[in-house]
Amino acid sequence: MRNDFTLFKRVYPNGTKVFFYYAYDKDGVRRGPWTTKCVNRTAAKNYCHRLFKDGALIPDKKRPCTFGEFDAGFWERGSEYVKNQESRADITDHYIDNCRRMLVNQILPFFADTPLEKITDKDVNNWLLGFRERKVKIDGKTRIVHYRNSYANIVFATFSIMLSEAVRQGYISSNPCQKVRRLKNDRKKMTILTDEEVRKLFPDNYKSIWGDKLIPYAVCRLAYLTGMRIGEILGLRGEYVFDKYILVCGQYGEKGYFPYTKTKENRSIPLIPEMIALMRGLNNGNGYVFSMKGGAVPVSRSCVRTAYNDALNKIGISKEEIEQRALTLHSWRHFLNTELLKQGLSVSQVQSVTGHKSIDMTERYNHLEACQITDVMKAQTTIAGTKKTKDNQEGLKLVEMPNIKSA
After folding, report:
1. Are residues 174 and 199 in the same domain?
2. Fewest 10 Å CB contacts: which of 9, 28, 136, 243?
3. β-strands 17-24, 267-270: how paired?
4. Are 148 and 210 part of one and the same domain?
């Protein structure tokens, strides 16, 4: 016999633990989840029993519903919205976590107690403009934070998604966000490294620039040859490094290793022999390739980022210039995308390396005009400034690999 409700615990980004519940309608279909606002199981159970006794275990959509009540469990696997979207496209855990974090930190503090039908476009507009100077509590102290428009617009888009879903579910008749214009774009224009700067950054004697930071050096070298996402690089394991290519089939993030890429599609990237040899020399090819603990866990992003910035300083790019040019580890994707197109590779060839799924994204990452060459490894050899060898020539074609399922 099925229970009338099922309890589960959710941990918010600030560490608070709150119990939620699912309920079952008269047809036995699971509904919810909804919050009990209780931090222990006994209190949550009693709360649900009271709702059941009052016939209110499943909220009545005709009753005025606050945004805080509506949001309960919205950004969870299994919620009505997420299930509805998953039937149309993949939704990653990273995306769900980011949306939940924005909800808790930026939306709920302003709209949690406001009835959905009372949220107006004026309220939304004032909230959006408030990102310019927002009071936040950090370590118990109230501070003024000046958020960028690009971040505010992302949070606004998340809010709009939720209110559109409230319309779809019949809680409100229209989405007030649709009457509010986004803030103007203030995203920093990225200026990628020049060929001369890259040559200085990766000299024959890497220690002259990178010191003893071999692993961060190797991470950045692979990034500039392949344009791989940093999570994909950190998630690369020795068993996926082959003689003339690597298989990209996972990523390593805040929650550990995931056996899939951002696009959920594996790809094989041809690679010059020098880079293959360098990677195989790290940790004897065991476990994670880029690890300071014998392959057990990857090197941290902060370690790589610090070493990268120090190396940029060493070749004459100051901290201020790094900030001005928006030079990050992700910049290598823009650099490689630009270089491959510059050397004449087709869009489909570039996408097979970078993992972009649309031509629009490939074009967005292009910072120069193209000229005519033909293949990935020849382009890598040119980019790296290494001598063309017979082995290089033998591996020029893009590698066609079967769809290997990773563990």
Report:
1. no
2. 28
3. unpaired
4. no
